[in-house]
Automatic annotation (TrEMBL):
<dbReference type="GO" id="GO:0051721">
    <property type="term" value="F:protein phosphatase 2A binding"/>
</dbReference>
<feature type="compositionally biased region" description="Basic and acidic residues">
    <location>
        <begin position="316"/>
        <end position="332"/>
    </location>
</feature>
<dbReference type="GO" id="GO:0005829">
    <property type="term" value="C:cytosol"/>
</dbReference>
<protein>
    <recommendedName>
        <fullName>Immunoglobulin-binding protein 1</fullName>
    </recommendedName>
</protein>
<feature type="region of interest" description="Disordered">
    <location>
        <begin position="289"/>
        <end position="341"/>
    </location>
</feature>
<comment type="similarity">
    <text>Belongs to the IGBP1/TAP42 family.</text>
</comment>
<dbReference type="InterPro" id="IPR038511">
    <property type="entry name" value="TAP42/TAP46-like_sf"/>
</dbReference>
<dbReference type="Pfam" id="PF04177">
    <property type="entry name" value="TAP42"/>
</dbReference>
<dbReference type="GO" id="GO:0035303">
    <property type="term" value="P:regulation of dephosphorylation"/>
</dbReference>
<dbReference type="GO" id="GO:0009966">
    <property type="term" value="P:regulation of signal transduction"/>
</dbReference>
<dbReference type="InterPro" id="IPR007304">
    <property type="entry name" value="TAP46-like"/>
</dbReference>
Amino acid sequence: MAQNEPSNSNDGESLKSVFDSAMKLFDKVETGSEATNSDAVQMTVKTAIANFEKATNLVSMSGMFSKNEALEELPTETLQYLLLPALLGTLTLKLCNQPRKDIINVAEIYFKDFIQRCKDYGVTDVEIPQTASDDSNATRSQTEQAKIATMVLTREAKIKRYNALKELKDKLSTLSKSMESPNVDDQTKREYFTTLLLNYVNQVLDELNSIEQEKPILEYMSKHAGEIKPKHRERAPPLKPVIITRDAIQKAVYGAGYPSLHTMTIEEFYDKRVQEGTFPAASNIPHKTIQNTETDGDETEQIKKEQLVEDEDPEELARQRSMDEYKDDHRRGWGNRHNRS
């Protein structure tokens, strides 16, 4: 059975107080309007990560979770701590001024650990998505008919998942309002935390898919431009994941894979990372408009002439009078008498 929540850590803080303070910072980052790469937001992200890591260590020391238990055996208040890897992975992706490759590798470890733990407790039955290297051989060996069948199944899975997600979000919204009541019962709390876990399972699957799309982009950037390092900053220490240790350190076990449920074009993916402050924005290069140089020259010359007239330039005024007299003595078309009777 799961042990009781540790009441105190080494410095006297309870797991609940550490977790709650981290969640407030997490919500501040998620709902804030300030750019993710700003100094203020980055400080909040790092503080929240430190608090969640501390909470993770407290959970590990308490032996709160075990693979030998079922979800029903866990006390209601401990269910929220199953979210720790997902929360840490989400915040890790928001870090800036560190090698992006390290960031996505650590986030991937957190996300897969979260999915595996949810599978162990029966929260979900989805398989951990395979990486590109895992399924490359299988993809090459597929026949055309098999590929078509896979596309059909993937489309059906997308439709099914879309409907399920809509129902899940509606349910979570209703339960969130119920949780605001001071007299909320234990059954409602339990249903809320379980629904919240399922909601994060879907978010994590999307993030894992995005990471797989980002890897070849980072590989391309590394080969052609080298790793972009921040100016006038010392290299940050390499990131290391902090996960719940009891019965959580295990070899990665991959199933048949999970269909790719979310796709983006390269432009959409890059724009998303630019908005998050991860990738640098493309330079705004003005488009050159092809113009008729002869017309531009005539217009420029005409402007110069008008300016000279306005300034009462003697030479320009004399030239204008000579032209007027010439036009009076030589009507247009008079010189064109060839072949006329």
